[in-house]
Amino acid sequence: MNAENGDIISLLPNRISKNIIDYFERCYSLSSRKVVKSVVLDFNSSYHIFIKRLFPNAQIIADRFHLTSNVKSCNHTS
């Protein structure tokens, strides 16, 4: 998704790590991926392993929706 205007750039068919890696390495050169400033992730533990390789200069940012959902669910378990 384009962070500036909200346009969807591409929608991948699944969340399999290998397919995500293959897509970005096939469709975008390393020089293009180095320009990426930030990547927003949910709390899927496997994504952070390869995001730094795909986007070496990007800052990883926690997805606000999942962060607040997890905080709310923690408060309800008390």
SSE inventory with pairings:
Blueprint: H1 17-27, H2 30-33, E1 38-41, H3 47-54, E2 59-62, H4 64-76
Parallel strand pairs: 1-2
Helix pairs in contact: 1-3
Based on the model shown, name its key terms.
78 residues; mainly alpha; two-stranded parallel sheet; 4 helices; 46% helix; 10% strand
Summarize it:
By secondary structure, this protein is mainly alpha-helical. The chain has helices at residues 17-27, 30-33, 47-54, 64-76; strands at 38-41, 59-62. Helix 1 (17-27) packs parallel to helix 3 (47-54).
Radius of gyration: 14 Å
Our count of helices gives: 4
Which residue ranges are poorly predicted, with pLDDT under 50 across at least 5 consecutive positions?
A: none
Question: Ends: how far apart?
Answer: 37 Å
Question: In this structure, how is the largest beta sheet organized?
Answer: 2 strands, parallel
Note the beta-strand portion. Answer: 5-15%
Shape: globular
Category from helices, strands and their pairing: mainly alpha
Residue-averaged pLDDT: 84
- Helix/strand order, N-terminal first: HHEHEH
Helix content: 40-55%
Number of strands: 2
The strand line-up of the biggest sheet is 1-2
Structure overview:
Strands 1-2 form a two-stranded parallel sheet. Helix 1 (17-27) runs parallel beside helix 3 (47-54). It has 4 helices and 2 strands, in the order H-H-E-H-E-H. It is mainly alpha-helical.
